[in-house]
Design brief:
By secondary structure, the chain is mainly alpha-helical. The protein is 59% helix and 7% strand.
Length: 138
Amino acid sequence: MCIYVDILLITNIYTNYFLLKTTAKLVHSPLRNSKCILASLVGSLFSLIIFLPQLNAAFLLLLRILSACIMILISFSGKSIRETYHIGLIFFFVSFIFAGIEYGITIIFNIVCKYFNSHTCCFYDSFIYSNLSIQILP
């Protein structure tokens, strides 16, 4: 299976946008579209790490947490440290829920996915690249 960088980035922009908008709704915080789009663009650039050679699992986890923190800081700038921490926790909760839903959909509808493992033995070191049409994304 070939991975097209443009599709990978666009899919991640959509995903990040929906994660951030859902988080904003749950924490009852206004989120301007311009900030959300910018954070989604920046966050999607982190998806390019699947093209890197094997990375240390701890470093990869740290990189993913860093990408989420950067997206949160861009989207919800001007909040107190406590509010930002709360928003970050909700963001991770929403991310886990969305990942579970996506995984469930791929199983139910038998969607072909390719799992990329850049390391061994860790659950947080894999990436899913689904062959989904852009038309099914709202």
